[in-house]
Amino acid sequence: MEVTKWMVHVCVFLVIGVVHSQIVTQTDLNNIADNLIVKVDVIRNYDNGSLHLIKVTFNNKASKSLSGYNWKIYFYSFFIVEPSHILSKDGLYTKPDGYTLPNVNLKLMHENGCLFSMSPTSEFIGLPHNEKREITFSAALWAISKTDFPPNWYMAANGLNARVISSTKGDFVGEFTSDKQWKRKKADKYDPYSPSVRYHRYKTTNSNVQQIVVIPTPKEITNKDHTKLLDVSGNVTIVHNGLNEEAKFITDKYNFDIGKTASTSGVNIYLFINNSISSSEGYTLSVNPSARCVTISGKTNTGVFYGVQSLLSLLSLGNNLQQMEIRDEPRYEFRGMYVDVSRNFVSKTVLEKLMDAMAMYKLNKLHLHLADDEGWRIEIQGLPELTQIGSKRCHSERDGICLIPQLGSGPDTSTSGSGFYSIQEYKDILSYAKKCHIEVIPEIDTPGHARAAIIAMEARYRKYKNTNVTKAVKYRLIDPNDTSKYLTNQLFNDDAVNPCIESTYVFIEKVVSELKAMHTDAGHPLNIYHFGGDEVAKTAWVNSTKCEQLNFNFSGDTASIRNELKNYFTQRVANITFTHGLNMAGWEDGFNAGDGMPFDISMYQNQHIYSNAWDNVWEWGEARRAYNYANAGYKVIMSHATHLYFDHPYEPDPEERGLYWATRCTDSYKTFGFQPDNLYQNIDVTVMGASISRAGICKSNTTCPLLHKPKNIAGMQGHLWSETILSEDNFYYMVFPRLLALAERAWHKASWENVIDETLQNSMRKRDWDNFAETVGKKELKRLDDIGIKYRVPPPGASNEGGEIKLNTVFPGLNIEFSTDNQIWKTGTIRDTASTVFLRTKSADGRRTSRVVQFETSTSTAWTIQLSFTTITLCSFILYICLLRH
Ligand SMILES: *[C@@H]1O[C@H](CO)[C@@H](O)[C@H](O)[C@H]1NC(C)=O
Ligand SMILES: *[C@@H]1O[C@H](CO)[C@@H](O)[C@H](O)[C@H]1NC(C)=O
Ligand SMILES: *[C@@H]1O[C@H](CO)[C@@H](O)[C@H](O)[C@H]1NC(C)=O
Ligand SMILES: *[C@@H]1O[C@H](CO)[C@@H](O)[C@H](O)[C@H]1NC(C)=O
Ligand SMILES: *[C@@H]1O[C@H](CO)[C@@H](O)[C@H](O)[C@H]1NC(C)=O
Ligand SMILES: *[C@@H]1O[C@H](CO)[C@@H](O)[C@H](O)[C@H]1NC(C)=O
Ligand SMILES: *[C@@H]1O[C@H](CO)[C@@H](O)[C@H](O)[C@H]1NC(C)=O
Ligand SMILES: *[C@@H]1O[C@H](CO)[C@@H](O)[C@H](O)[C@H]1NC(C)=O
Ligand SMILES: *[C@@H]1O[C@H](CO)[C@@H](O)[C@H](O)[C@H]1NC(C)=O
Asked: Reaction catalysed (predicted)?
C-alpha cells in the first residue's frame, strides 16, 4: 500500500516534471539562452493613444522545452512598458507588482531604468522544442528605429549565471515596412529618405563649386595665387624658439628637420610668437614662394598651434603650397565637444583619437560626462567603491556587486556598459589634451542622474556600518528614511542625491578635490567643474524629513520649495568650487528659477558660471533660456539639441542609430546651417517635422527675448549622449563628419548669417555648404581615414533624370557602387538594369561602405512626374487663393 502511494506520487511528479521541469543546471540555461530565437517587431506606433504595440516572437530551437517557473528574461525599453498597468495613476512611479499578460501568463516587471523583465506565472504553459509563441504588449510613446531595441536580452535563473540570449546579440528587430512603424503619429511628417529625396537634398546647383582652403574657414585669406607655388618636397627646416611641442605636430607627419637657424638652400618654416596679434588664439600663416618659406606666428602657443594645423591641412593636398596669407582667429573662445562616457564607456584611446580630430579642426573644450545613473567612470582616490561597483553593470542576485544592466549591456561586465578611467589614464587624457590645446571639463552629474554614485556609497555604508559608523555615513548620498516615490525621464526611482544632508557635500568636496589634484598633477589645471544639475524627478525629496529639518517644507507649494532647494544646492556646490578657485558649469535646467529665468547670478561667488542651453525644442517654448541666461550674466554655451545633439540620427530612417526626442534627424548640413548668434533664425520644424516660422513661435519677447549681452555667449558645443553608442564604431559614426560642421560654425561666422532675407540667406548658405561639402568629400574624409576615424559613410542619392540615372552623395568625390543582386558591385554608368538597383557609397579610402539602399528606377520616374503634378496643383491653388483675395 505504502509502495502504491509512493508510486502515485512519483507519477504525478513525473507528469508535472515533463511539462514543467525547472531550469536547474547551467547547461539547461545555456542551452535555452543559446537557442531561443527572439524576434521583435513594432506593430504600430499610433491608432491607440500614446502607445506603441510590440510583438515578440519566441522560437524555441533548444533541445529542451522552455518551462518551469524559476527563470526570467530581461530586456530593455526606453519607454515604460504597459503604462496603464505598471505606472501609478499619477504617473509618478511604477507599481511593484508588474503586470501579467493575459493568455500567455508572462509577467512584465519594471526593474529600474530601462531594464524590464518577463517571468512565467504558475499558469505558464511551457514552450516545447521547435515551437513558436508570439506575445504582444504596449509601451509608452513610440519605437521607430532599430536602435530603440537595445540588444543583449538575457536569461537568469536563481543560483545560475545569467546568460545573453544569443539571438538578441545581432539584428533581432524586424524591418520597418509601413508608416505605422516608422512614424510616431499620423501627423509625423517623416518618411525614410528615398535615394531621390537624398539626391535632391544634396544636389549642387552651383556651377562654380570650390574647395575651401582650410576647414574651419579662416577669417581672411589674401594674396592667394595658385600660379606661385612653394615646393616642400626637398629639404625643409622648421625654425622656432621654444615651440617644440607645436613643431612636433609637423615632424610627426613629415620628414622635416628642426633647426635653430634657417637653411640657406632648402625651404624654411618659421614658427614664432607675435605679440601684435590681438586674439589670444589668433595666428597668421604666410606661404611665400619667392622667399622660399612659410611663416606662422601666433599671439600664444595656442595660436601657433592653430597655424600649424592650418599648414597640415594645406600639406595634406600635396607638396606644392600655393602662395597665400592667412590671418585667422576664432569666432568663439568656447568650441566644445561633449561626450557621455557614462551610459556607455569608451576607452582612453578613443578619446585621444577624438582629440586628434578636435585639434585638426580647432575645437578646444572636451566636456566629459563622467557620472550618471548608468555608470561612474573615474577613479577617485579614497573612494574605491565608485569604480569597484559604480563602473560596472552586471546581473547580480546580491547588492553591492555592480549596477543593474542597462541599455543593452547584458548580464556581465564585458560590454561597453562597464569601464572607467584609472587615475593614471585620466592624467594621460589630460596630458594628451594639453598637447592638443584642449581643456577638459569634467562633469559629475548631481543631484539627479546620480544613481551610480548612490549605489556605490550605499555599498560603502554597508561595508563600514558595523565597524565604524562615522566612516560609514561620511559620504552617504541619501537619507534612508526618505520614502519619496518618483520616476525620472529615464525611468529610475532612486537616482537623486539628497541635498539636505551634509554628507552629500562632503562627497562633492572630496570628488572636486581629487579631480583638481589629478589635473594639477597632469599640468592641466582644473578650471571649470561641471555639476550637471539636469532633470531631477519632480517628486524627489518631497517626503524627506531631512529637508523639512532644513526648513524646506514640501507640504506648502511644492514647486516653489523645489526651486528653493535647487537654489540652495547649486549655491552650496558653487561655494565648494569657489573655495577651490574654480568656475562652475551646469545644464540650463540646473539654474532654472522658473519662467525661463535663471537664479540671480550674484548668489554665486565664482568668476564665471557657465550654462549649457540645450532644451530648445521650439514648440516647447524654452529656447528663451539661452538669451535670458546670457542677459543675466551667465556664460552660455549654445548646446541646442535640435542642431547640436549628435546622438540623434543623421536621417529619419529606422536603420539609422540614435534617439530622436528633440528632432527626428540632424545631418551635417543642418549643423552647418546653425546660427548661434541668431538663435530664432534657426526655428525650422517641430519635433514631428511640421514647418514652423519664427513669427509663429516668437509671439513676444517673453517667448523669444532679445540678446542684450552677446559677449556672454561663450561659444557652442556638439554633444554625444551615449545611450545607443555600444561600440567604438558607433561612436565615430555619430560624431563624424558632423564634428566638422560644428567646428566650421564655432570658429567661423559665415557672411550669410547676417542676411535677414530668408530666400537670399538660404541660397547663400547652400553655396557655402556646396564648397564645404566638396572640401569634406575630396579632402577631409581622407584625413580622417588616415588617423583611423571611421566616420559615417553616407548612403547615395539617385534620380532618374529623363532615363539617365544620376547618383550623388552628400560629400562629392566619394565613389558610388551599384548592384542588381546586392552581391556583385560595379561602378560606372547604370544601364539596362532591372527596376531595382542596390546602391552604396565607399569611404574615401575605399575600405568601408555605407549601408545599402535600394533605388526603384521606374517608380522614381513616376515619383518625379507626380511631384511636378503636385507642384502644378499647389501652384494653381495658390494662384487661385491670390486671385480670390484681390
Ligand atoms: C489600446 O490600448 C489599451 C491599453 O493598453 C488596450 O487595453 C486596448 O486593447 C488597445 N486597443 C486596441 C484596439 O489595440
Ligand atoms: C638636403 O640635405 C642633405 C643633408 O643635409 C644634403 O646632402 C642635400 O644636398 C640637400 N638637398 C638639397 C636639394 O638641398
Ligand atoms: C604679427 O601680427 C601682425 C598682426 O596680425 C601682422 O601685421 C604682422 O605681419 C605679424 N608679424 C610677422 C612678422 O608676421
Ligand atoms: C572611524 O572613521 C573615521 C572617519 O574615517 C576615522 O576618523 C576614525 O578614526 C575611525 N574610527 C575608528 C575607531 O577606527
Ligand atoms: C531614520 O528614522 C529612524 C526612526 O525615526 C531613526 O532612528 C534613524 O536615525 C533615522 N535614520 C537616519 C539616517 O536619519
Ligand atoms: C509622501 O508621503 C505621503 C504620506 O505618506 C504619501 O501619500 C505620498 O504619496 C508621498 N509622496 C511621494 C512622492 O512619495
Ligand atoms: C510644513 O508646512 C505645513 C503646512 O504649511 C505645516 O503644517 C507643518 O507644520 C510644516 N512643517 C514644518 C516641519 O515646518
Ligand atoms: C555660500 O557661501 C556664502 C559666502 O560664504 C554664504 O554666505 C552662503 O550662505 C553659502 N551658501 C550656502 C547655500 O551655504
Ligand atoms: C521687446 O520687444 C520690443 C519690440 O517688440 C522691443 O522694443 C523691446 O525692447 C523688447 N524688450 C526687451 C526687454 O527685449
From this structure: Hydrolysis of terminal non-reducing N-acetyl-D-hexosamine residues in N-acetyl-beta-D-hexosaminides
* Residue 512 reports pLDDT greater than 80: yes
pLDDT of residue 820: 92
CA of 488 to the centre of ligand 6 (A): 16
Please indicate whether residue 468, judged by its CB atom, sits closer than 6 Å to ligand 4.
yes
The answer to whether 246 is a known catalytic residue is no
Query: pLDDT tens digits, residue range 176-215?
Result: 999 999 999 999 999 999 999 999 999 998 889 999 999 9
Q: How big is the CA angle at 669 (ends 668 and 674), to the nearest 5 degrees? A: 100
pTM here? 0.94
Range of the domain at 857: 797-867
CATH code at position 862: 2.60.40.10
pLDDT at 81 over 90: yes
Q: Minimal CA–CA distance to 110: which of 118, 122, 101?
A: 118
| Whether residues 226 and 93 fall in one domain | no
Which of residues 294, 328, 362 is at a domain's end?
A: 328
Indicate if 234 and 169 belong to the same structural domain: no
Total residue length of the chain: 886
DSSP 366-389: EEEEEEETTEE-B--TT-THHHHT
Which ligand 7 atom lies nearest to the CA of residue 556?
A: 5
**pLDDT at site 197:** 97
Give CA–CA dist 828/808, Å, rounded. Answer: 12
Cβ atoms 40, 54 nearer than 8 A: yes
Are 125 and 226 part of one and the same domain?
A: no
- Whether 147 and 24 map to the same domain: the answer is yes
pLDDT classification of 294: cutoffs 50, 70, 90: very high
CATH number for the domain harbouring residue 238? 3.30.379.10
Do 33 and 171 fall within a single domain?
Answer: yes
The pLDDT value recorded for residue 330 is 98
Which protein residue has the closest C-alpha to ligand 8 atom 7?
Answer: 603
Same domain? For 167 and 35 the reply is yes
